[in-house]
Amino acid sequence: MNVASEYLQLQREDADQLVRRHAPLVRRIAYHLMGRLPPSVDVGDLVQAGMIGLLEAARNFTTDRAASFETYAGIRIRGAMLDELRRTDWTPRSVHRKVREVAEVVRQIENETGADADSAEVMKRLGITAEEYHQVLADATSARLLSLTAPDDGDGGEGNALDVADNDSLGPQDSIEQDGLREALAEAISTLPKREQLVMSLYYEQELNLKEIGLVLGVTESRVCQIHGQALIRLRARMGDWRDG
Asked: Region Disordered: start and end of each range (predicted)?
């Protein structure tokens, strides 16, 4: 066996060890994502996609990267799962359309009043009941509607602006735009009502699921779902200027 072959063999062995050691990370990320998805999504499909992402991460990881392997792999795993969800989009177009409608009304009210849009006023302008409004909030949480910058082309396709991008795969212009998105998103989150900011922090930074957040806040899981959905809709409304730009 020559030197090159020995090196490749060692690389394969190292990659295999990384995959075995970090396999539990795949299931953890999959079940975290399931917290925002409906029962119709099969967690096994997410795990399978995530394992492919982990394998690719193990093959492509180099020790000169700034991030640790777990951080790098987490991005790849989550990205592979989201790609799988995009490929098999289960969200009806009517759901995307209704959330856009509510976000637009929220945007109008907040532009007019300079204050957080009141749920009662939103329902009044839309002519919907509290039950219908809460369903939209639940849909905003469970559907892939986190893309606050994707164009509203009506096809129901949405990205995921709240997920961390792999900057190694971005070109210079893409990286600049991603940095601009992060800054705009962080600023928009800082303007949310305190309770909504807390839910966003616990969910996306601390990676608690809705049930765990409910225990922290002393409210039901369904109430957390409503607060989360309201935050996403409010962010979509407030990111409108960034999207239009």
From this structure: 150-171
